[in-house]
Write a sequence for this structure.
């Protein structure tokens, strides 16, 4: 091989190495963007889950309140029935 051919091959190899490096950087950028998108999706999912938990907690409080009112009404109806039976 001549010096000129060796230099051409070396230049071609160097160009390929640089292109491969750019492709790797591009791939890393794609991976970073994908990871950031996944983090954003996870944050949104967490926010939705917190809202759902808050709604469920409010529903539980409402159900407990309704149960308590129902029990109070039943006790009052029992007392009214007992009074009516005594007369």
């Amino acid at each position: 091989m001549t010096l000129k051919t060796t230099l051409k091959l070396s230049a071609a190899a160097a160009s390929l190495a640089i292109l491969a490096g750019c492709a790797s950087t591009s791939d890393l950028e794609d991976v970073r963007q994908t990871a950031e998108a996944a983090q954003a999706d996870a944050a949104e999912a967490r926010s939705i889950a917190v809202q759902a938990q808050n709604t469920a907690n409010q529903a539980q409080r409402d159900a407990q309140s309704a149960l308590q009112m129902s029990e109070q009404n039943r006790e009052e109806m029992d007392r009214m029935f007992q009074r009516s039976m005594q007369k």
User: Anything to note?
Assistant: The two ends are 125 Å apart (CA to CA).
